[in-house]
Amino acid sequence: MNRIQPGIKEIEATKAWCSTCECLYPEWLKKCPQCLIALEHATPHPASYPTPRESYQHIVERIRTRGGTVQLTLSTTDASQVRRWHFPYQGYGFAWATRLQGALGSLTIDLRTTDIGVTQRWRFPYQGYGFGWMRRLEGHIDGHPLSLTASSVEMTRKWSFPYFGFGFGWTDEMKGACGEDITAHLKATDVTYEKKYRFPYLGYGFAWVKESILTLKTVR
């Protein structure tokens, strides 16, 4: 298992954009795997969120009354998979969580993946490994914007005799903030794995975060 920090050499350019789910994808992808519509090469529009039912300061005070820190579970409600192959026998599978949801008491938390990272590795003679992960999440706490960026990514490789290679990658930790007074840390606690095959030697590995713990802290 490799624990890496996302970097320029590990991530392909993300230039294609889906106007429905507002996610950025690698340039080589032509169709959104979630919405099944053609991707655009355009500047994304700013995200819109519901009108807050409670003021931002009220949410800050909620957290302060609990000692300045709260933890809650976020569940993945949508995930995407993409397959890619390279002649003659290398198959690459990419997967990532596209939507995470949870609640802070009566307040809804809704996050969507707006940027992904992908990388490909191979091993002689026929084993190809693909890794995909959430690079950025954008969403809200009861209408108040919340954004997080990947700070730690996990990658692991498995193989099956004689030619199948399976790569699994996922975002293990993310950091961000909601406004000026709340910091956010996301930690993966449960990951889903899938293997798929295609004749004759193409193996695809997929992994995505199933559940996470979101920690919110007040900073002042």
Helix/strand layout:
Elements: E1 2-4, E2 14-17, E3 24-26, H1 56-64, E4 69-86, E5 90-104, E6 107-123, E7 127-141, E8 144-160, E9 164-178, E10 182-198, E11 202-218
Antiparallel strand pairs: 1-8, 2-3, 4-5, 4-11, 5-6, 6-7, 7-8, 8-9, 9-10, 10-11
Write a structural description.
By secondary structure, this protein is mainly β. The chain has a domain at 68-218. It contains one helix and eleven strands; from the N terminus they run E-E-E-H-E-E-E-E-E-E-E-E. 40% of the residues are buried.
Give the class from helix and strand content and strand pairing: mainly beta
Per DSSP E runs of 2 or more residues, the count of β-strands stands at 11
- Provide the spatial order of strands within the biggest beta sheet: 4-5-6-7-8-9-10-11
> Tell me, what's the shape?
elongated
| Unreliably modeled segments | 1-13
Q: What share of the residues lie within helices?
A: under 10%
Radius of gyration: 19 Å
Averaged pLDDT, please?
89
What is the first-to-last residue Cα distance? 38 Å
Give the SSE order as H and E letters: EEEHEEEEEEEE
Strand content: over 45%
The biggest sheet, with number of strands, parallel, antiparallel or mixed sense and barrel status, is: 8 strands, antiparallel, barrel
